[in-house]
Each structure stands twice: as C-alpha cells, then as structure tokens.
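Lab notebook, bench 4. Continuing the backlog of folding jobs that were queued last week. Each job is logged with the same field layout so the records can be merged later without manual cleanup. Today's entry covers FAD-dependent oxidoreductase, a 422-residue chain. Filled in by technician R.K.

JOB TYPE: sequence-to-structure
TARGET: FAD-dependent oxidoreductase
LENGTH: 422
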Amino acid sequence: MTQFVIAGAGIAGLASAIWLTRQGHQVSVYEQVPDPTPVGAGLLLQPSGQAMLHKMGLLEAVREKAAVVHSLEGYTGNWKTLDLHYQFGQADWHGLGIHRANLHQILWQCAQSLGVAIHLGNGIKEFSQTSHGVKIEHQQGTVQADGLIIANGTRSSLRDQLDISQTHQPYPWGAFWAVLDSADWPFPHTLMQRYRGANHMLGVLPTGINPASGKICYSLFWSLPKTSFADFREAGMPQLIASIRTIWPEVAEWLALAPETAIAIAEYADIRLSRYHQQNVVVLGDAAHAMSPQLGQGANMALIDAMVLADCVAQGVAQCVAPSEPEKIERYNHNTQGAPDKSSLASAFASYSQRRRKHIAYYQMASRIMTPLYQSHYPLGWLRDIGTVAGRHLPMMYRQYLLTLCGAKQGIFDTKAAIADL
Ligand SMILES: Cc1cc2nc3c(=O)[nH]c(=O)nc-3n(C[C@H](O)[C@H](O)[C@H](O)COP(=O)(O)OP(=O)(O)OC[C@H]3O[C@@H](n4cnc5c(N)ncnc54)[C@H](O)[C@@H]3O)c2cc1C
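JOB STATUS: finished
OUTPUT FIELD FOLLOWS
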C-alpha cells in the first residue's frame, strides 16, 4: 500500500483521492479552508469530464443536479455568430451545466464514504523530498508520505517550491458572476452569450439545481477588465445593471431582482509548467495548468488528470506511455509487498507528466488564442465573428470547434478526439 498526501480538496484533489483509495492506497487530503463548501458559479462539464465521472460511477448523481446543455449560441446584436450543437460531434454528446458546490459535494461524499482522511482547516505549508519519500509540513505538524499530490489551485505556493520551469501570468480580465433562479428563462438547454466587440461579453449558463434554494438556476457571467473592478464595486449594482442593459435588457431586469450580495468576482491566471512532476511530487488541476474559463475545460481537465494519474500508478509505465514516445522512462517496478518503491512511484509520476502533456498543451494554446477574441480591448470582435460564422459553414472547421469543445483533442491535427485515448 502506498501512502499519498493530497494538498487541496477541490475537484482535482478529491477525484484523485477517490481513484487512489479505490486502488487500495492510503490517502490523506489536507485542505486549508475549514469549511469545504466552495462558493462559485456554474461549470460546464464536457463529454470528456462526463466520461471521467462515468468511470468513477458518479455521472448519474451529477446528472440529477445538472442541466443538460445541447448547444452554445453567441450573438453580436441580432447576428447569430456562434452556433455549436454537441449532437453534430456525436449523437449522444451534450454538456452538463452544474453548480460548483453540487459537483464538489458529490465528490466529497464519495471520498468520505471510502474513508478518505480529510483534514480541514489544515493547509500544507511546504515539503521536502527525502530518501524515503516526501516530508510534508502542514499547519498542525509534519507527515511523511510516499508521494505528494499538489492539487491546491491556481494560487499554489507549493508549486513554486518545485524545481520546474513555470510561468504564472494573471489575466488582465476577469468576470462578475451571479447565480440566479428562474423557472421560465427561455433557454434552459443553451449556453447563451452576447457580445459587443471583444470587450463586452455576457453569458448565461443553465446550471441545474441551486444548492442554496433547491430551484432551477442559471449562472450569469459578465466579463470585465480588472482595472474597472474597483469602479464597478464603488458604483454598485445600479451601474452594473445599466451596463448589462445596453447588451441584454432581459438579463438586466433579472439581475435587478437579485440582492447586491448575489454578485461576486472571478479572476483567472495562465499557469504553465514544463512538466508536472518532480520525483515523488506531482501537480494536478489548476495548480498545473490554470487557464481562462473561456473554453470551459478546467474542471474537466482536473477530472482527467485524476484518472490518468491513477492509471499510471496502477498500471505502470509500460502501459501508460505510448510505445512511439521517445522519452525513456524506467519501468514501474513493484517491491515485494506489491507496492511501488520510491523510484517506481517517481516513474509513474513521470509517466503521468508525459501522458498529459499533449492534451494540456493543446487546450492551453487554444485558450491563449481564443481568450483575447472574447476578452480584450483589441478590435478583434469582427475577426472572431467572421471566423465563427465561416466555421459554421465549413464542415471540417465546425467539427474541429466541436471536438475542441468536447474536451478530448490532443493537438491541432488530432481529428478524432477520442475520449478513450486520454
Ligand atoms: C468564473 C469561472 C468559470 C469557470 N467555468 C468553468 C467551466 O464552465 N467548465 C470547467 O470545466 N471549468 C471552469 N472553470 C475552471 C474550474 O473551476 C477549475 O479549473 C477547477 O475548479 C480546478 O479545480 P482544482 O481542484 O484544480 O482547484 P480548486 O477548485 O481551486 O481547488 C483547490 C483547493 O485547494 C485548497 N488549497 C489551497 N492552498 C492550499 C494549501 N496550501 N493546502 C491545502 N489546501 C489548499 C483550496 O482551498 C481549494 O479547496 C471556471 C473557473 C472560473 C473562475
């Protein structure tokens, strides 16, 4: 049995804990926040993330709380520019819009039912690699483990302690968001967006059941440059509503019914690592590859990370690395107790790094290209609109948009985007 410590009880941390505990390993999760219920808005689970939840046996529980999303539509004025229907990628594809707290609760309950030790209000401060594994300092003491999984989100300071070349670039844009209940919003199965140029974007995502009210809810995202956050905060709700009214009056009326406390702010950053492991330490989720939420992939990628990591630990390097890959990795040796020894765990983590590289690189590239088209002061709105409208009429391009959205593409020239290959 291998002992793993996981930093962070977010999506990546809990999903990894579930996989590794089911494999018979001893897993402890350390979470710095005392109350684990995450605040947050809706997430769009793509076919890739749904496939991971299905493998975990949790998809049905998620479905019960989620809204089925059949399509994404975007408008500049009355001109429909974006019009993506999942079913044209594959007949049974769709998105699932779910409140972050609902997804978190499902993962949390599963981890608890498996007996995962979750230490709340006890963040991990630092770690050092030893000849026996990893020595980890948390807020209440020290613990020794065979492997450390860093899954503590975008602002991870543990990531900085790794000797891995990395960049952390905060985005100059963020978003105001709110979760609003409605029984009669006319687009219950469509992620709707409205744009003005590249510097105004308003989106409404069906989000399933609101955990606070038990009613059907929607997440509203209004993207803004960070430099204007302070002005909006000072001017308060009336200014926000007036500004939204210029682009979508019905949403402004809806928001006007909500209390000021319903509005929150989200900021993002672009995190890039040259690899995701160093000996017996591995980095997952946003801590490894945070990006703008424009493509709606972050939570899906965290779920994929967890599955691939568990696969690499369970099956060993020989099965995890495609034979064509040039990088040579030590075979995954088991010691006499049937548990991986220190060097074989390091090999499994190295294998993880290699296996995740292409998929993460593709989505980071796509995010870097797409985000300024939706969130910048550059005059790029017309280019985006012409591109998306043209794409709708070019079957090959339309298919590539859809495959990218579904979350399984492993490169520009990967035209099959098979979820099973992740
Ligand atoms: C506005 C917005 C919209 C989004 N929309 C989508 C979407 O539609 N689809 C999608 O797939 N993704 C979306 N995302 C991205 C998605 O939310 C993230 O990719 C996902 O939550 C990452 O999960 P994680 O577990 O890596 O990190 P997190 O969820 O950030 O979890 C990290 C955890 O680590 C804890 N922690 C921090 N430091 C320590 C420490 N030192 N020790 C112990 N614990 C620590 C934190 O408290 C937290 O609980 C969106 C993000 C934003 C901001």
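OBSERVATION: The chain has two domains: 3-64+101-169+269-421, 171-267.
SIGNED: R.K.
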